[in-house]
Amino acid sequence: AVMGYLRDVRVREAETDAMFDPLRQTVSLLSKHQVATPEEILRQLEEAPLAWSNLKKKAIVTKEKQAKNQSREADKLKKEAKEFEIRVEAFYATFRKEMPFEYLEDFNLAYDKIDSVHHGPNEIKLVETENYSAGGEMGSLKSISDDLMNLNNLQELFDLYKSDHREIAQCAKDSVQLKRVWDVIAMVQTIYIEWRKTRWDEIDVEMLQEENKKLQKEVKGCDKLVKNWPCFKGLEDAVKNMQTSLPLVEELHHPAMRERHWNQLMRACGMTFKMDDKFTFGGMLDLELHRFEDDVLEIVDRAQKELTIEKQLQKLADTWRVQNLSFPPDPDNADLFLLAVDETVMEALEDNSLQLQNLQSSKYVQGNADFLDKVQNWQKKLGSVDVVLSTWREVQGKWQNLQSIFIGSAAHPR
């Protein structure tokens, strides 16, 4: 208590010494303007400087009497301050290790870590440093801040240098910023968890892209001091990867995608899945499409090219399904029917043969055994049609030329 009083006198000395003259000047100014000051106040103003002077003298005498005890306590306090400095060093190192500066997939774990380190309780042990052997209890940021405040009060009592320990202030600042980062991470993770539940056929990519752009703005709004922290990098990557994946999801919704293309995607990503009515957006995100952007685009492009080939082959089949040959009777012999090939048949034969030739040289046909088999089969069919029609027309022409010679002649029976 004595040291507290001595400290109070020491702290207030300069301020109190300077207050008496302004008070006297104020009373004098009031008097000039016919404002009376009560006698009791005037008396107190007259006696106060002397009482204050006597108090300062008494404080000096008391301090001299307590000098020996004060010196002993001050030395003890200096030792405690040095020990506290070592503890702060270990606390700061432990803080950097235990707080969730790294990115975690579960934001609840991060919140638990922040709470336990910031205000406890926890069972964390202080890490070893150059000046501290590991093993002591870490405590909490709140408890070590209170200890620093108590130490500073004692240092002020004994007129010693007050330790500032900026590491503790830095820990407090980092705790606030870290909590804010994890609030954004929690928001993003919660939203993404809901998105993952969406069935494949119900995904609205355009809407998700707009929502994800809003999340990107939230991420960019974080304090610049946190932008080198791994947890922020993880947050930034998560949102960026989603923005990269969404256009790929849109591409994969193309109607050209077939089972073989899904199998190609599985091989490219090194994972398996079943594309059915239960498949969700989360299943596609598990493939980490952002890592295989070129592969995905190539697979979709192949699917689109193959769809074009499918349509060409189907159109070819439809074309030949309706082609007909006619057999009108020979004008000179009603019992004889001649082959008549419509010009559209020959045009289709020529165009489709050229089309099949181009298709066979396509890498998408060469890389697809089913397509290659169909193209080659159609080439054989049209080749046979061409040969048969040519031979038939040639024989028929010769017959027509010879018919007039032999009809009515003796050689006719032969």
Strand and helix layout:
Blueprint: H1 2-17, H2 20-32, H3 39-65, H4 67-98, H5 107-119, H6 141-157, H7 166-196, H8 205-220, H9 230-252, H10 259-269, H11 281-285, H12 293-321, E1 329-330, E2 333-337, H13 343-360, H14 363-366, H15 369-406
Antiparallel strand pairs: 1-2
Helix pairs in contact: 1-3, 2-3, 4-6, 5-7, 7-9, 8-9, 9-12, 10-12, 13-15
Distance N terminus to C terminus? 149 Å
- Strand sequence of the main sheet, in spatial order? 1-2
Number of helices, where a helix is a run of at least 4 consecutive DSSP H or I residues: 15
Query: Which word captures the global form?
Result: rod-shaped
Low-confidence stretches: 410-414
Q: Mean pLDDT, nearest integer?
A: 89
| Number of distinct beta strands | 2
Summing up helix and strand content along with how strands pair, one would put the structural category as: mainly alpha
Strand content: under 5%
Percentage of helical residues? Answer: over 70%
